[in-house]
Structure formats: C-alpha cells, structure tokens
Predict the 3D structure of the following.
Amino acid sequence: MNNVAKNDAPPVVLAVDDEANILRSIRRTLHGLDIELLLTDAPEKAIRILESRVVDVVISDMKMPNINGADVLKKAAELQPSAFRIILSGYAEIDMMLAAINDGKVHRYLNKPWNNEALSEVINEGIEITSLRKENARLLKLTQVQNAKLANMNQELEQKVTLRTRQIKAAFKAARQHSISLERVLYNVIVSHPKIDGGFARQVSESVRQLAVNLKLSAKEIYAARLAGLICEIGQISLPQDILERPFSELNYQQQRVFISQVDQAKLILSPLLTLENEIELIAKQFEPVNDEPRPPTGANLIAICRDYWRYRHGRILPTKLSSKDARKEMLKHAGVKYDRRFLSTFIEMDIQTLSKAEDVMRTPRDLKPGMRLNNDLYNESHILLLPQGHIFTEASIAKLRQFESGYEGQLLVDVGETANRTEDEG
C-alpha cells in the first residue's frame, strides 16, 4: 500500500525500541515505503527528536528502561498532537497498553511479534490520517486568510465608495433622476479599482445598448441591459490580482472557476440596491450557457456577447489582441453554447456600422460659455466622472474645469451642444 502524503518531502516515521534487532526488523519491513525513517534505541532521544522535527507517525515499544512506551507516546501527544501514535506490546504488558489506549494517547497497537503486512498497513493508515489533518489545517488557515482578505477588501471598498460619493456629490446636483445618479456612483466604484478598466466598461455598455436597440427590446430592457453591462465586472473587486492580470485562456480550471465566481461577489455588493433587481439578475447570469435550462435572460446573453467581444479585442481571453474580424470569428465557435445564435448574428451584422460613432465637435474649457449643455458624460484620464451628461455650464463650473485642465496631462476636450435656451426652444 502506498502512502498518500501530498507534501513534496516524504512523511517522517519515528521508531523507538531499546532492542537493536527490533529496529532492524522495522527497517526491513518498511523498506519499500516512501518515507523518512528515524530509528532510536532510547526514549530520551526519541523525545528530543519530537522536540526538533515534525513527525507524522511515532512507533514505540511498550517496555523500555527508564521511560516506557506509554509515557513516550503521551509526550508525543503533547509535543505533536497531530502525529499518529502506534504502540508495540507483548502480551505480558497488556494492562499498561490498555491503560495507554484508554488515556487517549495511542491510536493503534500491534502485538509482538507483528505481521509485516499489518505493520505496513498501520503505518500507511497513520500517514493518511496525518496527511488529512495537515491538509485540513492548511485549508482552515487558507480560509481564515481569505476571509481576512475579503473583510479587508470589503472595508476598502466601503472606504472607496464613501470617497467617490463625496467627490461626485456636487456633480449629481444637476441630475434629475435617481437612476442616473446611481449609475454614475456605481461606475465610479468600479473604476476606483486599479484592475478594472472604465473605458472597457463603457465600451461594453454602449455595445449592449446598440445591440438591444437592434433587437427591438423594450426601453426598460434596454436600460437594464446597458446599466448591467456597464457594471458587469464589479465582482472583480474580490478577485486575486494574478487572475486579473492573465488572459482567461492561460488560467487553469480552478482559476477559471474563481474568475467566474465574481458574479457571487457582485450580487453581494449590489444586494442592498433593491431598485436594481433586474440588473443584478443579468450580472449574476452573464456566464451561464444559453443551452442550459432555464435559459439565461436575454440581457445576460447580450452582456456575454459584448463583454467577450471587447475581451477578445483587449487580449483578455487570448494572449493576443484580436482584430474585430478575428474576434467575431472566435465567438462564432461558441454560438449556441456561450452565445445565442440569433443575438450573435445580429451583433456581427451591426458590429462595424453601429459601434463606430462619428466624432462630435469638441471644445476646450477655454471655449466654453455659460448656458452650454454637456452632450455626453465627461471623464478624466482615469475614467472618473467629472460632469454628467446634460450639465448646464455656469461661470463657476467653467472656472473649475479650467482649473482642473491646468493639471491635466494632455488636452481636455468637451462635447457640448448649443446653449440651453436655444436647445429648449428648438425642442
């Protein structure tokens, strides 16, 4: 029987007996096992070994001078409680042996003379039990570490949410609807994480909106899918950095499962927002295959299509960044499994025409005038929202924007329309 120790180093077996011929016999019996065998003829030496080495199995003769086997194993239980303890006993020592067993310091006993096969089996049993104990201890420690990390992440997330909320509170005064304000808060939450790309989030969101419009979904469905697409990666806040930094195809099976588990963290983060019930469901089911029953919601599959298209383009699925054409080819391989065939076909047909927008006339802060309306959300170079779409510029907001531009790397361009009065008259 082979031992099942999972460590790189072989398990350690310590045998103590004051008779040299017994130790030689033990060595011969255990010769075929992949173990490190330590032999000693003195109980005192055995105790010193237990004080300095990690031992998986201890075998001790019962009757020895100065210290008997029961006391050796009792000491072993104190020094290394996870070690498996075996006692060798003659029939004359049955009372002492039973006392040791009843005291809870002995796991197995063997009579002298022993059966070699029985000794090997008991040793393997002890190694297996010790290995399981070590693995349980390792997993418990790992769980405690991960729980501590998660608690720390949650605390950091709460601090970042508070910070971002304060930073954009002034910008939200112009927002007339709670849903618009909430969307911008959630967006700033995700881009506060160094490994979540705000530009990628907006690409996915806009692609989902365009696809939903082409499929003639209702206004409510379009809004839910677009917003869920914008924050579909919010659960990545909990993922380890090494998983986020590598393409999905280079992760092993377990790491891929951890990556997909981001939806569970997303549900946890968003659960207090009762008004986002539909969006939460779409985010939670974005990785579900379309051939499962029940089928995932339409919006979830639109997110999967647009999300993976941009992941292919950014080199986040394969090690290389794919062209638009090659990304569509790659996605076609998964039609009917990962992606709904009809939705994917529509996406491919409208991909070039509707996902590329003509440039609007852009202005610098120096060209702004009070009364101008902001056509689109204005972000800084870190994808943090500065001003929301629809903001009507005042002398104060223009001054603040010009002040911000003085420390901005590059040129800050603003997409504005006609003055508010003229726009309202024409509308």
Remarks:
- The longest helix spans residues 116-168.
- The beta strands are 12-16, 36-40, 57-61, 84-89, 108-111, 362-363, 372-374, 378-379, 385-387, 414-419.
